[in-house]
Fold these 3 entries.
Entry 1:
Amino acid sequence: MGGEVIFFLEIVISGVMAGVMYALVALGFVLIFKASGIFNFAQGVMCLFAALALYDFMAPGGWVDRWFGFTFPVWMAIVLTIGVMVVVAWLIERLVLQHLVKQEPIILFMATLGLAYVLEGVGDILFGSDVKPLDIGIPQGASDWALDNYGIYVEKLELVAAITGAVLVTILGIFFHRTRIGRALRAVADDHQAALSVGISLRTIWVIVWSVSGIVALVAGIMWGSKSGVQFSLSLIALKALPVLILGGFTSVPGAIVGGLIIGVGEKLAEVYLGPFVGGAIENWFAYMLALVFLLFRPQGLFGERIIERV
Amino acid sequence: MNPERPPNGVLLEVHNISLAFGGVKAIEDVSFDIRDGEIRAIIGPNGAGKSSMLNVINGFYHPQQGSITYKGETRSQMKPHHAASRGIARTFQNIALFKGMSTLDNIMTGRNTLMKKNVIWQALYYGPARNEELKHREFAEHIIDFLEIQAIRKTPVGRLPYGMQKRVELGRALAAEPDLLLLDEPMAGMNVEEKEDMCRFVLDVNEEFATTIALIEHDMGVVMDISDRVVVLDYGKKIADGTPDEVRGNQGVIDAYLGVSHE
Ligand SMILES: Nc1ncnc2c1ncn2[C@@H]1O[C@H](COP(=O)(O)OP(=O)(O)O)[C@@H](O)[C@H]1O
Ligand SMILES: [Mg+2]
């Protein structure tokens, strides 16, 4: 392969890594939006919160270590963090959603805005705001396999992220389409009243979607944290998820994934190939530009069934 | 026969129900009962409070006054989840289906309360959960055969014509194997042939499965033909209650339908 082609591929692959991240965050958004019509501004902070919790369960010098003098093995820390995210979901339903059931979407959105600040604040108090290197044993450095066979430089972490993302999406797909709970989730997304009439409990479903979103957030948080350390800027990734949603459609799971990949790859390519002509830093605004174009020509997104305004 | 059903033969009784939305009195001090195994029609002009009454019975609306006795248990209000799990299923005046899902999946949701709650196995779609799923699918297929909708079992219901959607909605309610089936204008907007089909299904359900049915319907011919007893509402009040013949001859009912003397 020519050097040009390899260079191009390396850019695409690094874009895929970022894209998987965006897709995972957008996926959390879509799940909650489908099931409850709520635009969850706190999704990015949930990634941060999950990663912080995981760090403190397992890392030397973390919260558990400082208070109790030991740390949990990685797998146990992950299980415990999943538990934490389920409890967070339950608390959100209990303390916030339950009281706002029949309110306007904008009020629910404001509630999630508040939630974002609460989670960030709690995260700060409990875990501190310094950058924490997260190491759950994902191999670092370049993949020798890709380098030897194809002459392409790929981070092992990027491969792991892509595979994990694909596995997670497959599991969610089976869960949604083959099980009673998955069917109940889709039913609630479709028609609240009808769902109630067949005995589906909205509250249970909400706890489940928020839990699943929390677990998806944990996966995203692990990936990002392994790459750049767990830091508060992680919550800003939510802002990148917005254009992903506009591209993919707010109610589409495949849309979140394809949208995430398009934006992740697109902004890397734009940075390298268009950057020099406009003075660089395209990566910062490319996603929003693309979203704007979509809003003008295809506001329901690539896969969306309906316009954002719902409920 | 279901051992839970009370010996006096009354499956459901509403006592002195009053329901208001702000200043609008949708139901005023209405009482009636539904006997085990009967087809009970609820009729009355538009806005009489018929749909509101069904909503009270399955727990969508909570009345300000009165109580509801179902299977011998008296409460001041029902909750939708409780109603569904105790055997009350319903259809809606304005079809409420899961439009993106297939006919089969819609009917499967009807079995929600009958399925076990093993979340973990469910999530993994493994072992016992998988077998259970297959067992319920078999039942759903029975209903599809019964309602003669095999041809559309995989079609997303949003694409079906209106009459078919009504039928799928009935299927979803039947999938719950209900003891009490609430039908809100199941034949509204249908042509003669579709109405006849629907009538036949309602009668068959009542006879074959001994399901008690509360039916709201505007077509007087249908009501007089298939119902055992009729309760008549007008402006939120009960104005008559009896067999079709008794109700037909009632002066108040005739006045209400001819629009006489409301002032
Ligand atoms: N959710 C609601 N909010 C406000 N008013 C309602 C609501 N549901 C019903 N009503 C009012 O209650 C009255 C009875 O309505 P309804 O029960 O639908 O009558 P029917 O089914 O007999 O035509 C009407 O005046 C209607 O406007
Ligand atoms: Mg009505």
Entry 2:
Amino acid sequence: MSDSATLEQPPQDAGERQPVTKKEITADHPTWCPGCGDFSVLSIYYKLIQKRNIPHENVTTVAGIGCSSRFPYFVQAHGVHYIHGRALSFASGVSLSRPDLHVFTFGGDGDAFSIGGNHFVHTARKNIKMTYVVMDNFVYGLTKKQTSPTSPIGFKSKTDGWGALDKPINPMKLAISAGASFVARTTHTNPKHLLEMMDAAMDHDGFSFIECLSECTEFYAGAFDSSNPRKGGEFNLVPEDHDPTDEAAAYALASEDFPGHFGIFYQVQRPTKNALEAGVIEAAQSKFEGKPSSDVLQATFNRIK
Amino acid sequence: MSETTVSEANNGSNSQPSSISEVTIRLAGNSQDGIQSIGGFLARLAGRSEREVMTMMTIPSTISGGASIFQVRLGSGEVLSPGDKADVLFAFYQHSYDNHVKNLAKGGILVYDSDHVEPDEEWLTKYRHIGIAISSLTVEAIGGTARDKGKNIYALGLIGRMFSLNTEKLERLINERFSGKGESVVKTAMDAFQAGYRYQSGDLFNLFRLARGGDERSNQVVMSGNEAIGYGLIAAGVRFGAGYPITPWSDIMELLRRELPKYGGSFIQCEDEIASVSMAIGASYGGRVAVTGSSGPGISLKAEAVGWAVMAEMPLVVIDIQRGGPSTGLPTDVEQSDLNIACYGGHGDSPRVVLAASDVEDCFYTAIEAVNIARKYSVPVFVLSDQAIATRIEAFNEPDLKTICKDIELDLSPVSSHKPYDLSSGDGLSGHRAPGTRIEDGRYPVVTGLEHDESGHPSGDAVNHIAMTKKRRNKLKTLADELPTPEICGPDSGDVLLVGWGSTKGPLHEAVDQLTKEGYTLSSMHIKHINPLPTRLEDILPRFKSVFIVEMNDGGVYGYGQLAGIMRARYADARIKGINKTAARRWKVSEIIERVKARLEEETVAA
Ligand SMILES: Cc1ncc(C[n+]2csc(CCOP(=O)(O)OP(=O)(O)O)c2C)c(N)n1
Ligand code: SF4
Ligand SMILES: [Mg+2]
């Protein structure tokens, strides 16, 4: 236990404080397998926190269940390891009740699009302010190689020994059609691009969604080689003339065969749920001119006597 | 103008109004007739007239066009239950007459709409019948354009006259109710009311006069149980909630959605119950305790998340307005069959707190208590109510809001260090630090559903799991020691103790009163804190020869219901037996009396 008397008094203004160091933001050594794509996402998150100079106590990381969702344990900051598939709903509660925080949510493809599919759609359409990074490895990692909702047809898993039968979900299409206001695609093998996307997502006022290809070296090695120049593949950025406010164009990009393009497919400004609810509150409170809550409730009770 | 048809039944007529201390009126018609709103007016009026009031209403199972009844019991003394039998029945249709005439008390009065009802010879001799052409008289009164809409207000006028109610107050209530809809609507309603009130009949209006209640009840508020829960949560400082619509919980989420913004809060309608409970827990994590709720199947869906809140030690209030189950069950009927899921619903050992409200007033205070326990113990707290209290309107003494109302300030003051699952205090309490709180030693908490060590890091260590399981359970032991001992109504030892929970409180109390008058010696006890049970409860049971748990759920394979099961497990006492009912209707006082007598007979035979 630390002796608080020996600690320097923290400056009141977070802006005056020294940016948090990588050492300060690093927690337990990740339990991921060597070479797992999730490592790069974690180290880019550290970079982002430092780059954006987020006050240490405001870093809020939420995740569901899966290999990727162990993320919060590896960040020395306020963190939540919630239940499988429901991290977005939890994070929405934090975001809506704490407008002072920018919540980051991390998870896997099963967590996001299978058990959490319903919440993904509704969090996107409600445009709840937060950044959601899905570390998509096309497989269930934590439960050891079952078919995931993004596994391509033919992928041999323990639940489809003969190769996956069902048409996979296309996360980008799903996000665009559900109404996400920021939709980007990146990969763990290009950390620079990953940081760019995280940075842009954080700037976005709304629900910012990033699909990050993140290889599961244990159960689906080589899945993304064709997107990795070092493995003979190609990494193509979204064409410069792409208009990210054009929904149809974004949908067309999302429809390309793997490996497709990387970058911001779609981005529009529309009111966040946070702002809309704040508007409702402002309108309701304007009638009470800062009266204490007992007076407000008394006014209601006077009408039901 | 049609004539009043008055038949003289054996009770005869009496021109002197008799002063009565209470009356039960049942109105039977169709849901589109606005029967429920008559009840609302009477309840409000009673609240303003210093009379204790309790009303009962059943929701029709079809949304529109279905049969609907409303029963109101007005009393000048303490009214404990909505009344078994009606003293006065208003029958608007033949089916209303046919189905409800048997619910009239001996000597009761039947007022029927002679435009729609043909009385039955058999009943004519039994009850005093008063036929009034309610439909055509209403049309006549309001100009004939609105067909027979307004019948309910006409009937309200009749009732007002019949029981010499305060017309001035009633007219003010009608005004308040309709003024938002425009002047012509108010005028139509007033016309209908006055026509009913001025209706000429022989001695119909000279039968009763309700005695006035005591002055100590002069300041009452009138609301339903669901409203009381909603306002209780607000008074306790809840400013965030999330839910998904389902009957009969929906009223609460609608109220919170409408009201919370006035206090700077919000209530979010989610895509399902899992999202709702998760969002609420997320807001609790954000630093201020939040609420979710549901009924029936929605409660089942929340189970996994509630387990997380137990494990992660996050405060949360879960409102469960019980209805008939399992599955979709009986959506608009009453049952007390969610006690087990509230106490045990979820995998693993997951101790949580369960409270049950007994009447409308208690809904208000139970909601407040739930919030306070959730905050202090960082634990999910269930509030059980049921369909019978949820929609029932009662008047109760106005709470002193100045002293009760709280705003929960977000506390983000820095701390030198923090362990979210600190084991050092024996009572199991640690406490939550919300994001935004600076932890000066730089070691930040992870809150988690994985078994964890004191700082929230995953641990599969056996010794640690034992210690953490004990911590979560000890919080409830600490709470149990603080809980008040349930009060006993009647002698505090003797032959029979009847035990109830939730909405059975009133009927049980009345049953004991009546049985005592009949010469039985027995007592009743109502349990509000069900999980954990109050520590001192264990001294009470041995003082009685028999203990019967009266509840609205199945006696099950072994002959006792859900609370009885919990108490048998707790006290290892085979004398605890069940008196159960699964008819999806509330307990009638007479039923309890019959069942208790029958049980006592069985026991004597067996002895
Ligand atoms: C309700 C529930 N069902 C199933 C599981 C088991 N489970 C844990 S993680 C997981 C899938 C993980 O896959 P993904 O979300 O893609 O994450 P990854 O491990 O690949 O990063 C499953 C099925 C669970 N924890 N909870
Ligand atoms: S199983 Fe796959 S996803 Fe999980 S840690 Fe190992 S490599 Fe990463
Ligand atoms: Mg995966």
Entry 3:
Amino acid sequence: MAALHFHNVTLGYDRHPAVHHLSGEVAPGALVAVIGPNGAGKSTLLRGIVGILKPLDGTIHLGGLDARDIAYLPQSAEIDRSFPISVFDFVGTGLWRGTGLFGGIGKAARDKILRAIGAVGLSGFENRPIGTLSGGQMQRVLFARVLLQDASLIVLDEPFNAIDAKTITDLLALVRRWHGEGRTVLAALHDMEMVRNHFTETLVLARGPVAWGPTAEVLTPENLLVAMRMCEAFDDSAAACAADDISSRAA
Amino acid sequence: MLYDALIGPFTEFEFMRRALAAVIALALAGAPIGVFLMLRRMSLVGDAMAHAILPGAAVGFLLSGLNLFAMTAGGLVAGFAVAILAGVVARSTGLKEDASLATFYLASLALGVTIVSIKGTNIDLLHVLFGNILAMDDQTLLVVAFNATVTLLVLAVIYRPLVIESVDPLFLRTVSRAGGPAHLAFLALVVINLVNGFQALGTLLAVGLMILPAGIARFWSRDLTAMICIAVTAAAVSGYAGLVLSFQTRVPSGPAIILVATVLYIVSVLFGRVGGIVRQLFPGRHLEA
Ligand SMILES: Nc1ncnc2c1ncn2[C@@H]1O[C@H](COP(=O)(O)OP(=O)(O)OP(=O)(O)O)[C@@H](O)[C@H]1O
Ligand SMILES: [Mg+2]
């Protein structure tokens, strides 16, 4: 059973496709990098997977996963940083799946939260209001919450934005640990070196799939060149799409 | 002497005791709602809703005179209608909620004043606009207490999703569908508490006992739970002091309560621990680490 199955999926905004006719599947436990230039549709695809954007066409099967089994780290979170909530409580919301509306936070849960905060190197920040963190620290807090969500599908949209090199190493180790635990991980990334060294599978996007498969085979100069040539802007006078002809759009 | 001024009115007069009970019930339920309104940047939404309940209350008044039951029912219906309409319009069109509310409430206010003036006198209009907490009867007091209880119960149920929705709506949307219902339930609570405050303070000032204490609390704490406690205390203190002030002078009760709250607010702006002006001017020497 595939963890994720795309069936001729088109995702977009106001009828304009941002990801055009994508088909394929992600095996359970896969570690997939999604790459492509700005505007390629990486974030759009990830939004489609977590269910906050409905496909314009086609279907995405989650292979029996429910919204609670997915942890999502958006590219730019819409967080109200002025809200008076501490790092501890904020990270604790990752336990939502277990606690629901009323469940109390017991000793075991407290330990889990503290460990997640420690894992991203923020021990000592537990009682700080989230509004007082630096940009990179906030990103790490979000990572800690993902850690706590204990999800079988983890979707990361440029998770290492604004994070220093040492922390990236730590967080990458976390990603590898998730992979080792059999969780499916999808991450949108721009750092080719990182993709090559750490991700087993790669999807190259340019408003549609350019190539998809084992990283070593997919990450070729030719594929990247095709992706680079993509035209970023929507065509306002585009006609309704009749065929799956992506190559003409990418050229 | 001090006893006569501060406690005497309440031991001596039943209407003062009723007013005090009412104002404490209002503080307990309204202040937490106000804190959430403020944190969700919906303070003006609260104000707008306060106007929106007016036509409903006015229709109640038109049908049965100054009967608080009828006016409450009318206010609830009108408030819910506007809250839900505005919420639905905002959610389905992407228009900001406050913008869509502004339209609804201006219409409601005009309609409400028109309806009251068709039948009533100017005194009636004043009563509707500014309330009269000293004229509470048992029945009204029960309604106020009942609404406050309902508010606290519902707030307990929606507390967690409401907090998460306020901080990180996208996260709540990906893990649960509780966000929408929690938001609507919250709007409903806003309406219930406005109608509640409306008995005591009138349409125009009802929102004051919700928003001002929240504003005060913000200057004293960075923690949500503490903010709610401070807001409730500030509201109760304003209510009590306002009643005493109104009893000893000729200031009407509603405005007296809000004026006391305003004084507390000004003190907080000046001397508050979190971002108060004095604190900013004299921050003390910087720390070691
Ligand atoms: N909310 C939106 N409304 C309309 N168009 C959008 C919206 N969000 C994204 N787009 C468009 O969809 C296309 C794909 O955007 P997307 O955010 O998926 O790109 P991306 O691959 O994540 O790029 P980046 O590397 O810059 O994050 C872009 O052309 C963008 O302009
Ligand atoms: Mg993106």
